Amino acid sequence: MVIQSNQAKRLQMPEPWQDPKIKPYVSIKNLTKRFGERLAVNDVSLSIYKGELFSLLGHSGCGKTTLLRMLAGFESPTSGKIFIDGMDMTNTPAYKRPVSMVFQSYALFPHMTVEQNVAFGLIQEGMKKNEIRDRVDSYLKLVQMSGYENRKPHQLSGGERQRVALARSLVKQPKLVLLDEPLAALDKKLRERTQLELVNIQEKIGVTFIMVSHDQEEAMTMSTRIGVMNEGRILQIGGPTEVYEYPNSKYVANFIGSVNLFEGLVVEEKADHVIVKSTMLEKNLYVTHSASAPVGAQINVAIRPEKVMLTTKEPTDEYNWTSGIVQDIVYLGDVSIYYVKLSSGIIVLATVANLVRAAERPIQWDDKVYLHWKPQSGIVLAV
């Protein structure tokens, strides 16, 4: 629901990263970090705009947390520059940066009450008591924690501790909030609900958020844009729809959701399509596309499982279908994932909405089925 709301807003105005007149709020230029011989962050350049909720997404060890810690000032870059709101922050110590961080463990002081935890930073700055009280009250109200002021962290649930940690970060009114896998400790249902709450809070106050996550669904749900990282580099930057529907590499296609990859040879290349011959499939692939792939090029065609249709009747189309045997069916409630083994030996996934009950399914285990898809469903990727 939040994503649809954000998209509706963006239809009415250009994205800031598409407007050359708008300057980035956070600018990372050729940032590199080495730990001895290990290259943790490799020459990363990145522009993030005011009011964004930008996610750095990747597996453990890809460099995303190191990049976040350099933004916070907890790690010094080996080389490169960091600018926040036009100011060079590269060598500025953490306590002088207009940045707050929400840690994965929340890092609340166990001996302090909720009110004391949220007020801690303001007390350190020497703010007057009445001003501290008013500001703490307003931010506890913002995160829906009014009435919990006198509780200790051990008396709170995981979701409540997460809200207190967020209030503590926001109460100092930073220019930038960094979130290091802030929802990882929550169970699935609470995590989903908290995702929406975080997005709503971020939209309400307009502060720029940069979040680190390894959870693709979390990043897709919450982010204005996503930067997919691997081995210290950012491989692709784009909105959730762009990164999912138009991955620029095999790695991104595999990392974001599930994907079927068919390796083949380009046998025809026209302005509006390519035809690919693959030994994995019975029929050639016809892919409408915008990228150029010359005849003779070895490529992959990526097709998402939800775009693969199943039938027991042989299609009459010349392209974009094959047959196989249902090896397994994974029931997920709203959808089922069919694992279909082709004669070439590969397994193709097809996601099907459960419009009828399991006993009424027209396709069951060991059935012969035909898989087919539309020409616009495929994405051409380099091998």
Provide an overview of this structure:
By secondary structure, the protein is α+β, with helices and mostly antiparallel strands. It has 2 domains: 2-98 and 174-252, 3-Layer(aba) Sandwich (Rossmann fold); 258-382, Nucleic acid-binding proteins (OB fold (Dihydrolipoamide Acetyltransferase, E2P), Beta Barrel), CATH 2.40.50. Helices cover 25% and strands 32% of the residues. The strands form 4 sheets. A 6-stranded mixed beta sheet has the order 6-7-8-3-9-10, sandwiched between helices. Strand 12 and strand 13 (285-288) form a beta hairpin. Helix 3 packs across helix 4. The longest helix has 18 residues, at 188-205. The protein starts with a helix and ends with a strand. Residues 1-5 have low confidence and may be disordered.
